[in-house]
Design a protein that fits this description.
6 helices; Helix Hairpins; mainly alpha
Length: about 190
C-alpha cells in the first residue's frame, strides 16, 4: 500500500507551517463540507481533507509521516499503514493486531523498527499448542546451556592464562637466581 500524499490533498508544500496548514484546512473544509457542497465527491473529499489535516496537524504524526515519505520501505511494511501507523482508528481486517513503530535517533541518523503484535504483550499459553510450548522451553534451555558453557570455558581459559603467566614469572625469577649465583659470586 502506498503512502497517501496528504500534502497534495491540502495543496501545501511539505515545509508548510502549522498556521498555513490550519488556514488551508479551514478554506478547503468550508468549500467541500457535505452540508455546503452537494456534489457527488464532496463528502469523500471532505473525509480526505480531515484525514490529511489530522495527520499533519499533530507534530508527532507529521514527523512519522515525513519519515515514511523519505523511507517508503516502512510504508509498505503493514497493510493499513495510512490509518494504523499514525494512530487513527482505521482497521483493515486486522482487528486483533496492532502495529508498533519506533524511531531511534542518533546524532546524524534516524532509523525505525517495525513490529506487529497481538493485543496481549505476551502470548498466553492457552492459545499455544503443547508442541510449541515444548519447543520454546527446549530452545530456552539449550540457549541457557550454551551461554553457561561459553562462560565456563572463558573462565577456564582465563585461569589457564593466569597460571601460565605465573609459571613464566617463576621460571624468570629462578633463572635470575641461578645466573646470579654462578656469575656474580665473590
Amino acid at each position: 500500500m502506498n503512502v497517501p500524499d496528504y500534502y497534495s490533498v491540502l495543496g501545501m508544500p511539505p515545509g508548510a507551517s502549522q498556521d498555513e496548514l490550519k488556514k488551508r484546512y479551514r478554506t478547503l473544509i468550508a468549500k467541500y463540507h457535505p452540508d455546503r457542497n452537494s456534489d457527488a465527491g464532496a463528502e469523500e473529499q471532505s473525509k480526505m481533507i480531515n484525514e490529511a489535516y489530522s495527520i499533519l496537524a499533530d507534530p508527532d504524526k507529521r514527523s512519522r509521516y515525513d519519515r515514511s515519505l523519505q523511507y517508503p520501505v516502512y510504508a509498505n511494511a503493514y497493510e493499513g499503514y495510512g490509518h494504523r501507523a499514525y494512530g487513527n482508528s482505521g482497521n483493515k481486517d486486522n482487528s486483533d493486531r496492532r502495529s508498533n513503530f519506533r524511531s531511534y535517533s542518533g546524532e546524524n541518523y534516524t532509523y525505525r523498527s517495525y513490529t506487529s503484535r497481538t493485543h496481549y504483550s505476551q502470548e498466553s499459553t492457552e492459545n499455544m499448542g503443547i508442541s510449541r510450548i515444548l519447543l520454546r522451553s527446549i530452545l530456552k534451555t539449550i540457549s541457557l546451556l550454551v551461554v553457561l558453557w561459553l562462560v565456563l570455558h572463558f573462565f577456564v581459559f582465563f585461569v589457564f592464562l593466569i597460571f601460565m603467566m605465573m609459571l613464566l614469572y617463576l621460571i624468570w625469577v629462578v633463572m635470575g637466581q641461578i645466573v646470579g649465583f654462578f656469575f656474580y659470586r665473590r
